[in-house]
Amino acid sequence: MSVPAVRAILHHSAYISRYFAYSVCFVVIAGVILGWLSPASRQAFMARLAPVPEISQQAKPSLHSNKPAGDVLEVKKLAKAMPLSAFEARVRKITSARIAPDACDAQVLASVEERKWVVDYLARRYRVAREPLKKLVKEAFITGREFGLDPLLLLSVIAIESRFNPYAESGVGAQGLMQVMSKLHADKFDHFGGLAAAFDPLANLKVGALILKDCIIRGGSLAQGLRLYVGATSKYDGIYGAKVQAERERLRSVAQGHDISIHLPQKPSRSVIQAYNKTPNGTALSRPKKSLVATAYAAPKNSKKVVAATAAQPPKIVIVPASRPAQLELGENHQKVDGRGESAELGV
């Protein structure tokens, strides 16, 4: 073979190699763009590619272990076959359940700027340090996505329950940020190391979110879920649910960039409470009637002064100490006025 022929072959092979390299680069770039635009295609590709490194790892024994490769495979099989703990099984069951749409929001607090606004507002409103609050807001976002809950709902419950005090404890034993009854939910805190974890902000947030979603599932709606969470024994939960929803709407406005005053009271307006307490058929829930026990002195039979109870003005019950002689007069508004001129009215 002559020298010109060899030169021609080398020249053509160089062109072929160059075009082949161009083609490979084009395919790789197209695959990267497709994987970025289509997460489903990327996951399918990774699923196909996953067995390759697993087989290579299984084929060779570990360098830091004297166990053969067969024993490593047995350990992996046993780990997969081990049953989940009670807490993990409950978490998996609750997180996979669907709840009312108004309790979910996967888009809120997704950006760093939204979290910054919410952290700044909560820090000024509840006088909390920004650094731990920043971690808590981020964890609320992660927990909300994990459990399928609105992270602003979790932050609102924390605000109403403990005002972001991780060491808060009520008289009935509710503890931590979300005021969880730790003794009743000891099995859940065992996963985090025991009852002492109730005062750990992240552990309390996880357990509280789990309980809250379970309550919403059992209640069938967000309003009934909040009623079950606070432990109300009737359909009327006072204004707890309305307070949580009002705080949630304030945080939503803050996350959208609106300027909201930090001095607004937690108690919402009467119209908001009435709208929240309306049942699906449009009737409003009212406070359950309490049995009234008259402890005041009865009026004498010959007395001409009779206090009439009307619909516009409900009757008032007056408490008078038994050890003290009563020289009482009726005021203009049917109030009992003692000798010191102080009102002793007790509304019901």
Largest sheet: 2 strands, antiparallel
Helix percent band: 40-55%
Radius of gyration, rounded?
A: 33 Å
Our count of domains comes out at: 3
Instruction: Give me the secondary-structure category.
Output: mainly alpha
Report the order of strands and helices. HHHHHHHHEEHHHHHEEEE
Number of strands: 6
CATH topology of the largest domain: Lysozyme
Protein name: Slt family transglycosylase
Organism: Mycoavidus cysteinexigens
What does it look like?
This protein has 348 residues and is mainly alpha-helical. The protein folds into 3 domains: 3-78, no CATH class; 91-276, Orthogonal Bundle (Lysozyme), CATH 1.10.530; 290-348, no CATH class. Helix content is 51%, strand content 3%. It has helices at residues 3-37, 39-49, 51-59, 69-81, 86-96, 112-126, 130-147, 151-162, 186-189, 201-219, 222-230, 240-255, 270-276; strands at 174-175, 180-181, 317-318, 329-330, 336-337, 345-346. Strands 1-2 form a two-stranded antiparallel ribbon. It has a two-stranded antiparallel ribbon with strand order 3-6. Helix 1 (3-37) packs across helix 2 (39-49), helix 8 (151-162) crosses helix 12 (240-255) and helix 10 crosses helix 11. The protein is elongated, with a radius of gyration of 33 Å. Mean pLDDT is 75; it is low at 50-69, 290-312 and 324-348.
